[in-house]
Design goal:
By secondary structure, the chain is an alpha+beta fold. The protein has helices at residues 3-8, 69-87, and strands at 23-25, 28-32, 35-37, 40-51, 54-66. Strands 1, 2, 3, 4 and 5 form a five-stranded antiparallel β-sheet that branches. Strand 1 (23-25) and strand 2 (28-32) form a beta hairpin. The mean pLDDT is 89.
Length: 93
């Protein structure tokens, strides 16, 4: 399922994502957007950064799912931090 399909609920069994407030981390902005899919919350979000005056965005979805929105939100933010730590600006290539 694509991230945008999940956000706008185009697939049965998936509810629109509730996007979190932005979280800054090492110059990046993380927006967690776990969405309900078949009774569990799917890990999803965006990582943004301005590079050379241009706003770049990386969307991600992971297979991890959680029973509560709070758990999914926490894991999504941690996963985004891990992506930033491991890949840095390469996520925008």
């Amino acid at each position: 399922m694509s991230f945008w399909s999940a956000l706008f609920g185009r697939r049965s069994g998936a509810a629109a994502a509730k996007i979190s407030d932005p979280v800054e981390y090492k110059g990046y902005v993380i927006r967690a957007a776990p969405y309900k899919n078949n009774g569990a919350y799917q890990t999803a979000g965006t990582i943004e950064r301005e590079i050379g005056g241009v706003r770049k965005e990386h969307r991600f979805i992971r297979a991890d799912a959680y029973a509560s929105y709070g758990d999914a939100l926490s894991f999504t933010l941690n996963k985004a931090r891990q992506i930033i730590d491991l890949q840095g600006d390469r996520i925008f290539d």
